[in-house]
Amino acid sequence: MTRPVVTVAERRPTRQIHIGKVAVGGGAPISVQSMTTTKTADVEGTLSQIYALAAAGADIVRCTCNEPEAAEGLAQIVPRSPVPIVADIHFHHEMALAALEAGVQGLRLNPGNLRKESEIKLVASEARDRGVPIRIGVNAGSLHPEIAKRHGGATPEALVESARRELELFAEVDFFDVKISVKASSVPLMIAAYRLASETFDHPLHLGVTEAGPPPAGLIKATAGIATLLAEGIGDTIRYSLTADPVEEARAGRQLLEAMGLRERKGLDLIACPSCGRAEIDVIGVAAAAQRALEERQIPLQVAVMGCVVNGPGEAREADLGIAAGRHKGHLFIKGKIVRVVPEDQMVEALVAEAERLVAEGVEARLAAAEAGAAEEAEADRRALLEVKGQDANRSGERIARIRELVAEEAGPASAAEGRSQ
Ligand code: SF4
Predict the structure, then answer these.
(1) Which UniProt keywords are present, listed alphabetically (predicted)?
(2) N or C: which end of the chain has fewer CB atoms below 10 A?
(3) How far is the CA of 394 from the centre of ligand 1 (A)?
(4) Is the domain 277-389 a CATH 3.30.413.10 member?
(5) How many angstroms does the Cα of residue 364 sit away from the middle of ligand 1?
(6) Where residue 87 falls among pLDDT bands split at 50, 70, 90?
């Protein structure tokens, strides 16, 4: 006799939005989010952290967009990120416009510190025209002072009212592509606020205990708040806010969802770059073929399929094994180190063979068995591709030029200088 499957409470229905390729709400799998700690202007450092977060289980990653250089960084990061990117905006509405110009798949606005109605509506109109959702990210610690005063502090009602007011402004410009968070560092307050938000809105809810602190106490606080709500069927996407390496956040989020039976456990974890102007192959086709073959063999590894050898091995250095295309060849790498170079039409076959050996022999043995000259050949291919396609294969330069114009137009010289000094 088969046992009935025990699940947590039925999910409360919400409408569905899409952060890039990730559906949120409306019965979609609950997604895991995290946030980078690098300076967003540091493109390579930020991308490397984004790949590490994706490998640890993050479905969506947020990056701060606090200065023009950050927006310019986003113009280069977004086309190379394996997961959708949300720009975090505080105080400066022109940074939201610049982030949209950079191509981000989502925005987070804090109604407590971006207060001018005309600016909020301008951002919402621009997001509407581009089909980009916004999270109304209310935070007990930075609540609008007038709302806090009227409610006698950051009460659940005050947090929900702040979100409702922002929603009303969005509605004035016909923008409804929204998710909501009402975070607090107090677990009981956060639970009460989300319960009220869930009764009040049908928008997807992003759960989190803000400033939970370092593990283990931070993990316990965040889990207490998030798990309680999930068990009641509340919440569509989650983030652990830990004072720790953000990889810990992504891992914790993923583990919580798996423990509660809300996400499937992973066997093979195939990651693939989204492909961009540098791609040398049909990444989707190769990734699908690799996935089929590796799943058939039940390979318990994280395997990366990357569109180019210029950035692929570095971006996917957290993966156990990967392959990156370039100059009609496949460059096989283990933990970011090139071990073999094969003809392009043998990429999938070589990847599968190496995966089997890696499972049987282990990382050290396979690194020791690297083909002589493979790393040098890959480096030569990388340089040759850089020469052919240049440094700006994604035409990020055009977006950056437009961001500079936009920031100058919107903010004026004084405000732009202020933004830069934050
Ligand atoms: S094609 Fe290259 S640069 Fe573009 S996303 Fe893939 S690995 Fe990154």
Answers:
(1) 4Fe-4S, Iron, Iron-sulfur, Isoprene biosynthesis, Metal-binding, Oxidoreductase
(2) N
(3) 10
(4) yes
(5) 27
(6) very high
